[in-house]
Amino acid sequence: MPGPDSVTSSDGPENAKPPVFGDSERDEAKILIGRALTEDMPRDDVTSEPLVPESLRIEADLVSRQAGVGCGLPVVVLLFEELARRESAPVVEVEIRTGDGQEVRTGDVLATMRGHARAILRGERPALNFLQHLSGVATRSRQFVDAIAGTGCSLYDTRKTIPGWRSLEKYAVRCGGGSNHRMDLSEFALIKDNHRQICASLGDSDFAGWIRKIRGVRSAALVELEIDNPEDLPAALEAKPDLLLLDNFSLSDLRRAVEFVSQWPGPRPELEASGGVELSTAREVAETGVERVAVGAITHSAPALDIGLDFRTG
Fold first, then answer.
1. Domain match, 137 and 216 both
2. Which of 140, 170, 270, 276 could make an SS bond with 302 (beta carbons 3.0 to 4.6 A apart)?
3. Does residue 189 form part of some domain?
């Protein structure tokens, strides 16, 4: 099983589609880039301007210091375009040397930049911040995907993302071979423990009734129901959710739930396991037979991938 600092598959997840950096990712990136450049240089660069000639042009490489999965290179391109727009300067040329979602080794060059030295110096830290974080999310996602490979189970993320970064972080999960759970509260219904507690406090503990209410408002809505007690499984299945989230179930309870559902005479929802799933335990969870495993840590706790900027000399 891959450890926390390794990526083992040579070609990425089997049959994985190339990740798409779409309009939502681009729009979010532009907002974050604007904030990043403003906070890093609210006025001027008091180090580079006295030391570096304005006309000096250089080349520099973005280099991975460790093995992982690259992600965020389109953001780097957008960042230097915005930097040039703000300063009415020529655009720094960014030559992408490896695609997002591709595995990189220690020493691999992810991109080469050519342009004015001052501009590259000004964009260096914000660019690395984006690239290191998103590559870290993609790398941790790939590690989980590798850990459960061959089980028939798929890795899903959660809404546990940095505020403002959701589209980019979920893009990074896809770059790592994982799948996105719902993007937001509007996408589909997920009846969680807090919904259950509130409804129960109002004297309503009818799973099926809750789902009918949701479908009465949104007839085509996908509905997922979360349970944290194996005793609730029969009632949950009778309610006919599309997905059934088994939260913090033990391995033995997960196996029993999979077996119970396999013999259920009515509609059978996909089963999703969540709650405290770590890289060291992910395969055991997947091997219980659930179709999905949801891991919040791939976004909220992914360590940054060590990436640096090296100037070419001579």
1. no
2. 140
3. yes
Q: For residue 223, give the amino acid letter.
A: V
Q: Is residue 9 situated within a structural domain?
A: no
Catalytic position from the list 226, 272, 283, 291: 226
pTM: 0.91
**Which entry of 45, 247, 284, 287 is annotated as an active-site residue?**
247
Determine whether 247 is an active site residue: yes
Q: Are residues 189 and 306 in the same domain?
A: no
| Domain identity same for 172 and 49 | no
Cα–Cα distances in angstroms (integers) from residue 302 to residues 62, 118, 134, 144, 284, in the given order = 20, 31, 9, 11, 21
Catalytic residue among 30, 97, 160, 240: 160
Angstrom distance (rounded) from CA 96 to CA 112: 7
pLDDT tens, residue by residue, 64-119:
999 999 999 999 999 999 999 887 766 799 999 999 999 999 999 999 999 999 99
Q: Which domain holds residue 90?
A: 23-146+302-311
Q: Which has more confidence, 242 or 7? A: 242
Output the CA–CA distances (angstroms, integers) from residue 95 to 25, 80, 114, 314, in the order listed.
20, 12, 8, 20
Q: How many CB atoms lie within 10 A of CB 109?
A: 14
Residue 89: per-residue pLDDT: 66
pLDDT in tens, 247-299: 999 999 999 999 999 999 989 999 999 999 999 999 999 999 999 999 999 99
Based on the domain organization, do 171 and 135 belong to the same domain? no
CATH number at residue 208: 3.20.20.70
**Do 45 and 100 belong together in one domain?**
yes
Q: Domain check: are 195 and 212 in the same one?
A: yes
Residues 113 and 188 in one domain: no
Measured distance CA(159)–CA(260) in Å, rounded: 29
86 with 178, same domain? no
Could you tell me if 224 and 191 are in contact, meaning their C-beta atoms sit under 8 angstroms apart? yes
Query: Is 160 among the residues known to form the active site?
Result: yes
